[in-house]
User: Which sequence fits this backbone?
């Protein structure tokens, strides 16, 4: 089927009677897909990706019609140990342009800046001096004041901005309401529901997305979803977000990301009914570039990640468990379970 034929078919689907099924079978032109393979995956190897890998993901995003690609972090370089982290921890302009040149494509580029871990006034140049299009601020609820200043700084420099509210499964509702109220008046264009610990079920996704929509829609902002796969629900929870009205969607090639990983890009692209997206380039990248990394990085669903997800804990203990296995130490899942439940 040609591109024009796919477009005609999709347009007819979009005009289908507004039944519950048609609201997700047809496509929404407002949806934006963001690939965070290199940024989130970099948490598994201290951001030491070879240029060839980054270029392969970039090529797949361009050819697959993905809307944004996140190349890494903007992090403080004060007091760093040389060589401890790869260049995608800092995303200096020369490193970015070594991969994308002037990025003469429709793909937009993003970087993430953690609140209180980025010297943003110095490290993020004006947009006219950068190939980056969007700055995403990751924040915990107690860092909202800093986040508001970071968003304003990036916006005033000419960037698109979004905010990822981290570890939402641990935030008291009153504090979340106050944070969303402040963010809704900021310059950000989207606020993300982030399942940092991979602990959310569909009912909780419904609760959070609906809440975010209440704050965002009145101020003209979008809601995004960033899901982890500890309970093998990263993809399902992303779909849940789509059905409810979230239009900014994070995914990674083969689900590569911290710990249990993320919603897999190939599943998301296969689900979206929009002819602008092409699955084949994504599959090529997954097969030839990402899957060969699995034996070294060991991301994806596994029992230790399942257990931290069930207990709504940060996956750092599970990551240490897997790192020990990489060094040849035999892990004992029962002992791991007893240890982390005792800490609850």
Assistant:
């Amino acid at each position: 089927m040609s591109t024009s034929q796919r477009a005609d078919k999709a347009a007819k689907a979009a005009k289908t009677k507004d039944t519950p099924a048609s609201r997700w079978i047809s496509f929404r032109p407002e949806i934006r897909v963001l690939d965070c393979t290199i940024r989130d995956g970099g948490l598994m190897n201290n951001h030491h990706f070879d240029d060839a890998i980054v270029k392969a993901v970039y090529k797949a995003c361009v050819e697959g019609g993905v809307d944004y690609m996140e190349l890494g972090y903007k992090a403080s370089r004060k007091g760093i140990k040389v060589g401890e982290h790869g260049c995608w921890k800092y995303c200096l302009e020369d490193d970015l342009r070594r991969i994308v040149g002037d990025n003469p494509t429709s793909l937009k580029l993003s970087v993430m800046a953690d609140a209180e871990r980025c010297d943003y006034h110095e490290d993020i140049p004006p947009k006219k001096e950068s190939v980056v299009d969007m700055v995403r601020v990751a924040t915990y609820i107690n860092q909202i004041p800093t986040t508001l200043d970071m968003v304003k700084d990036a916006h005033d420099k000419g960037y698109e901005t979004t905010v990822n509210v981290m570890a939402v499964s641990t935030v008291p509702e009153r504090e979340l309401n106050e944070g969303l109220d402040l963010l809704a008046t900021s310059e950000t264009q989207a606020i993300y529901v982030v399942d940092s610990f991979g602990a959310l079920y569909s009912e909780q996704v419904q609760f959070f997305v609906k809440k975010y929509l209440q704050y965002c829609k009145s101020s003209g902002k979008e809601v995004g979803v960033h899901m982890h796969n500890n309970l093998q629900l990263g993809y399902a929870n992303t779909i849940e977000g789509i059905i409810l009205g979230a239009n900014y969607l994070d995914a990674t090639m083969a689900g590569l990301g911290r710990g249990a990983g993320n919603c897999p890009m190939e599943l998301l692209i296969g689900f979206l009914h929009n002819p602008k997206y092409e699955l084949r380039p994504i599959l090529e990248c997954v097969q030839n570039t990402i899957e060969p990394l699995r034996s070294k990085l060991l991301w994806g669903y596994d029992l230790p990640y399942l257990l931290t997800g069930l207990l709504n804990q940060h996956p750092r203990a599970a990551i240490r468990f897997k790192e020990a296995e990489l060094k040849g130490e035999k892990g004992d899942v029962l002992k791991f379970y007893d240890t982390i439940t005792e800490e609850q």
In short: The beta strands are 32-35, 68-73, 108-114, 134-139, 160-165, 190-195, 222-227, 248-251. The chain has 16 helices and eight strands. Confidence is low (pLDDT under 50) at residues 1-7, 13-17.
